[in-house]
Amino acid sequence: MSKIPLQLKFLLFLFVFVAFWYENGISQSLDPRDEADVILSQYQEAKSDRKKLDLISQLVRVIHYSDSAQKYYPEAIRLARLVGDAELEAQNLNRLGVYYRNMNLQEDALKLYEEALTISRNANIPVQIGHSLNNIGQIFFYQDQFEESLKYYREAETKFLEIADKEGLAYNYNGMSLVLAAIGNFEQALITINKAINIREESGNERQLTVSKFNRAGIFMSMGDYTNAEPDIINLYDYGMINDKIRAINALEKLVELKLKTTNYSQAIAYAKEAMMLHKEKPYSESMIEIYHMMYNYYFYRGNLSESKKYLDILEKEKDILNVEKTKNYLAGLTIKKQKDEIAGLYREKVLMEINNRFKMYLLLALFLFAFAMFIALSIYYRSYFREKKNLSHLQDKQKQIEQQASELDRLNMVKDKIFSILAHDLKAPLDSLWGMVKLIDEENLSQSEFEEYLPIISQNLGNNSMLLENLLIWSRSQMKGMHVQLSRLNLNKLVDENIRFLLSSGYYKGQLMENYVAADIEVEADKNMIDIVFRNLLTNALKFTREGDQIIVDTKESDNVYTVCVSDQGTGISEEGLKKLFGKDFHSTSGTHQEKGTGLGLILTKELVQKNKGEIWAESTLGMGSTFCFTLPKL
Predict the structure, then answer these.
(1) Which helix (H) or strand (E) holds 347?
(2) pLDDT means per 10 residues in the chain (636 residues)?
(3) Is 387 part of any domain?
(4) Does residue 54 share a domain with residue 128?
(5) Model-level pTM?
(6) Same domain, yes or no, for 169 and 40?
(7) For residues 491 and 525, what is the distance between their CA atoms, to the nearest angstrom?
């Protein structure tokens, strides 16, 4: 099977994700809470296991797509096994698998689907056999195992046809069409999705019909048939405006893409603005990030830098920090692929050079036999010599380029190792503690008073982790050359006040006195976000190494060209050996007065951010007498 292009694969994945999320009813048009409360009350009053099983199975069907449903599934499965109801056992296993699938726990979901399939086959329950096969096929589709996925969908189709289950067939054809589209069989994909649409038109289920039509739009988009795709996307938009604004935003995302591809730019801009208005009412970042990105590209490539920057700023605020590990692996993969291509090119050139050398040898032999041939051979030789010299120079340039790429790959691997080290040693323990706490609460082994005693510790650990993650992600982005200074005029006094107020409610605060002596009129031109992080790291360090009642002062000094900002504390201080290690390339840290953990990453990042803003940073300290961290910023 030929490899699917990355763009097509991404487009299909996006449609699959949205469609299945939508189809599984993440947003219900009717609020199920009242019905769920009634069923839960009846379940709690039920006496027999049979009655409890029927009620709890009914309850999880009503609240299936909410997080609260997850805790009821194990009990439903246990009761089904207790009373010997294989159908409800398989059904609840399948539904729990859908929950895990929606949480992106695909391997866990697959195990539950396979268990449900085994139970259904042993008890000969055709409906659950079909749904289990459908679900397994869907997981294999997510994992890009398209042939395996299609095999399970075909088997499920056969089962649903045997029992004339139209609802099951509609789900089956819906999923199967996406697999067929993914392998490039668009004609068969359209035939299949139209079968699902016909069934759902007969049943009158508007929501599921809208889902299937949106899937068909995805297939048309993959084929470049935007004319037929548009009505199905608008159908989702109309439905979403009435029932679910998130779906309307998602439809607007595809309409923006469609209009840009068909060069109807004014309509694309109008759709984007409508999506932005809906986003204020019903936030949906996944689609809005794509819309902002498309609009940024549109204005950028047309030279409208002010509009492109506006959308870029919105995009940066909207999207989460990029997954550093995926980005790094992607870059490393590109580097390795490029190296392989270049090595193959060098090998081909080497073969050509060997052929050329053999050819020269034949000419040299001919020189000894024929004088005229000698003249010709010498001419060829000199021409070949200069060509070979040029090739050699080219090869050397290629070699240097490969060495540079290898060096960059080594650097990326070092960044990866440092990130893994931080994640393994400084993030895992607090999260394990939190998981243990949640497990104790879930099992009702932790009293209210014990929970309240542990709560400040958990809060502090999570606060530490939050600061560590923020520093880690920003530092990682700087290592990937993804940070750019965005200069703006900012008031230092106001920035210091904002950070002091923020840290007074953090896990680092222990009752210290934090004073802002920065003059109210001092303004500089710098990157606000970067300098904000600098202040937060320096003040956090001061809080870590001071005790209750200690004073922490932020002050400035003015010289000819710069302002010098200093953060002073009355804390534990730093030894001479410790001072030498600050701001270095290696991570180094010590525990705070409450044994707060650190990585040293904050000061490394702080140094990089100050330098990016054309400043310098240093520290002065005496062990046991407190510390002063100072940095400079250019005057306006």
Answers:
(1) helix 324-367
(2) 45 46 42 77 90 89 75 90 93 90 86 94 94 94 93 94 92 93 92 92 88 91 92 92 89 93 94 91 82 93 91 82 38 37 49 75 84 81 80 82 75 58 53 66 68 62 57 60 83 95 86 95 93 93 92 94 95 89 68 56 87 94 93 93
(3) yes
(4) yes
(5) 0.46
(6) yes
(7) 9
